[in-house]
Amino acid sequence: MSSKIESRIHNPKSKIGLVAGWGRYPLVVAQALKAQGHEVHCVGLRNHVDEALRNVCDSFTIRGVARLGSHIRFFRRRGVKQVTMAGKVFKHKILFGRLGWLSLVPDLRTIRAFFPMFILGKNNRSDDTLLTVVVDEYARSGITMAPATDFAPNLLARPGQLTRRGPTAAEERDIEFGWSLAKAIGRLDIGQSVAVKGRAPIAVEAIEGTDACIRRSGELCPQGGFTVVKVAKPQQDMRFDVPTIGMGTIQSLIAARAAVLAIEAHKTIIVDEPDVVSLANQHGIAIVSLTAATLSKPT
Question: Are 277 and 243 in contact (CB under 8 A)?
């Protein structure tokens, strides 16, 4: 662990809280924390979390996503001073269910925290705005939020061509075109991914998430062969909503007949990278990990 990372962690062998959403990423983070000697205390989000975390963490509970006061009490009772978030939260289910956010039965602390946004309409409901409210509430209780990648930095994509096949010249042009589009929607906090072919946009990710965006691209471009670009937002806060790919991403690319996946190096998490690369190789999908400086030379 680098000195830079250690400086952001109060005690290298301390109690760490984990707020776990959907996917394997929270499990990988918990395993990394345990391997480093930390106590791990986990709040799993109901209808999201993989209960396999129960067998990894020192304590584990499942709570509703809108039970913010309950989450914080769980951590404080265990002496947790630092928490990290990992895993996807299905925002469309939170905001646009039949009864809106009230269907989540929010506790009093959640209602107070989000009152200016949901009742008074003072702020937008973008990912950054919503999650900043959560981070601020934890801070008011003396709990700091740290990036999960501080504890598992090996999950961040390294630069270069990850698969046997690299992009063709035409696909390189699509990557450059898609990169600028993805950065633009990221700047507006809309999404992280775009699909393009022949330098024509096919689909732009919004609230539905990357996998749904990819599958929709396959419906809109049945001939396949398109390129997906997934990047960090220019204002990316590494404490939350970090771009993540895994086996599900590749399965979506296969189903949609996509040809290329371009991600941003050092700012994208790859869960189960060997399996991801192996599956992509089996189906002739190119994966490249780029920085702004290497964008014009994907291979």
Answer: no
